[in-house]
Amino acid sequence: MVIIMRKGIIGLVLIVLVAVSFFAASTAMAQDSSNATNETKTISVTGSYQLSMDPDKAEIYLGAETRATTALQSQQDNANIIAAVKSALYALGLTKADIETTSYSISPVYDYSKPCYETNCPWQPPKIVGYTTVHQLKIKTANIDKVGQYIDAAAKAGANNVNYISFGLSDSKQKTLYNQALTEASKNARDKANAIASGLSVRVKGVISANEGYVYVTPYYRSLSAGAPESSQASTEISAGMIQVSASVSVVYEI
To answer: For the chain, is the Cβ count within 10 Å smaller at the N or the C terminus?
Structure first.
């Protein structure tokens, strides 16, 4: 009698365990199905835009290089030229705030002995035969049309190291174009998302996230050759290139 009751109890327990296991499995499957149904579907795109604009500022890099037998003479000759260059630029309306020194150096000039091809050659140290002074200036201006005049005036005053010009945008204009490029890049991202959704026969519901990508402002550089123009030569004409502003935006849309 006891054995039969124990068997009955064990059977009942097994039935309960099977029922619980079945219920748990059914619940898990239902949750998975519900999660799959409620999973957010998305489209990820990157929009980009580039615009071009005329520069509204320029930086001219030029200077003077002098050589003399003594460091003092080289320095004095260079100082005289730079003073004349600045005076010529001031006469055209530039101020002290528009001109700054970017580099200055005085270095010896060595004369190295000719190489000896014999077996035993006496070592001869290089000799200092002179000194070179280099003074480089950066000239800032918002008068793009006068860049050529500034170069001519500096060269005629003695500048013999005319390097290059950098054209760019002022901070206010750069900020305006930067925001415009971001706006257009965002529109481009939206157009891409709509095109993809149309091809998939779905509809874009809204934005889940958006991140600013790269923003590039590409200045325009123009190299120059040194040399003071002759009086019979025409004045230097400088054509400023366009400044490129590029932006991108990454957006995740819900569909």
So the answer is: N
151 is written with which tokens?
Answer: 């170069």
Residue 143, classified by CB atoms within 10 Å of its CB into exposed (0-12), middle (13-18) or buried (19+), is middle
- Other Cβ atoms less than 10 A from the Cβ of 92: the count is 14
- Farthest-apart Cα atoms in the chain, separation: 133
pLDDT digit string, tens, across residues 45-87:
999 999 999 999 999 999 999 999 999 999 999 999 999 999 9
Angle, alpha carbons 153-154-156 (nearest 5°): 65
End-to-end CA distance of the chain: 67
Is the pLDDT at 11 greater than 70? The verdict is no
How far is it, in rounded angstroms, from Cα 69 to Cα 189? Answer: 66
